[in-house]
Amino acid sequence: MIEIAEAASPVRSVRRALAILRAFRLCDRSLALGEIARRARLDKATARRLLVTLMAERLIEQNPDTKAYSLGLGVLELAAGLTPCDDLRQRAQPLLAAIAEDTGATAFLGVAHDDAALCIGRVDGDEAIQIRAWSIGGKMPLNCGAGPRVLMAWRPPAELARLLARPLEALTPFTPADADGLASALARIRERGWELGINDVVEGICSVGIPVRDRGGTVIAAISISGLPAHILADDKPRHLAILQRRARELELRLG
Closest Cα partner for 148 from 125, 127, 168? Predict the structure, then answer.
């Protein structure tokens, strides 16, 4: 009798297509073919063929004038299909809207996923300048921004040690990218229950983040806001912390 192996070998074309999608980073609006091929470690001909396929599936778009490529709306459709997050996202959405209305800032809901912070909820406030980084479905390094660092602070000890042992990405000169300094910062987050980020994702932008826990006390998400310092800070302290804490507790009650 012929037995079928339980674990099939990885399909090379799929891995290559994923490498192309992962070539796009948070700060990239678009990329040229050569840069995509370099980041994905592919030759240009292979990268071009895969890009054509991804364009047909609406995962990649191409600017007809510049010929540069960007992620397409199909990526957001895939992100919307993250069913384990559906209940959390749906219950959090009205609370994010309330936070955005009360603070005027952009409100986010993030979860830890694949060694990064994944945005699963976002509502823009009425500030004149809106934060364009970290759209729904977008990933942020766990050491960048108040919400992601909150998620990082409560990772299991073994996982946290592994994350701190890797090279840490810096989005600006103010991003905490030193392992020892970051470990101390994460300990302070666990002690006080919130985090403040200043200039560490985009210079001139601040953020405040707090944890969301399940009924067993495990941190499962982070709620955060981002905006200009004048809207986020008061005497160098987070001015909307009480609003975030109240809404986070409401979400925890809704989750049961």
Answer: 168
∠ Cα 104 108 112 (to 5°): 160
Decide if 23 contacts 40 (C-beta within 8 A): yes
Q: How far apart are the first and last CA of the chain?
A: 50
DSSP string, 63-80: -TTT--EEE-HHHHHHHH
Residue 237, pLDDT > 50, answer yes
Judged by phi (left if over 0) then psi (alpha if -120 to 50, else beta), residue 218 lies in: beta
Crossing angle, helix 44-56 and helix 33-40, to 10 degrees? 100
The pairing of strands 233-234 and 60-62 is unpaired
User: Which residue's entry shows tokens 């229950």?
Assistant: 193
Query: Average pLDDT, stretch 21-38?
Result: 84
Angle at 104 between CA 138 and CA 107, to 5 degrees: 25
Examine the pLDDT at 128 and tell me if it is beyond 70.
no
Fill in the amino acid letter for 242: A
- Per-residue pLDDT tens over the stretch 156-180: 999 999 999 999 999 999 999 999 9
Rounded distance between C-alpha atoms, residue 35 and residue 47, angstroms: 10
Helix (H) or strand (E) holding 92: helix 86-103
Domains of the chain: 12-77 (1.10.10.10), 83-255 (3.30.450.40)
Show the tokens assigned to 215: 């009924």
pTM across the whole model:
0.71
Q: What is the mean pLDDT of the chain?
A: 88
Counted residue by residue, the chain has a size of 256
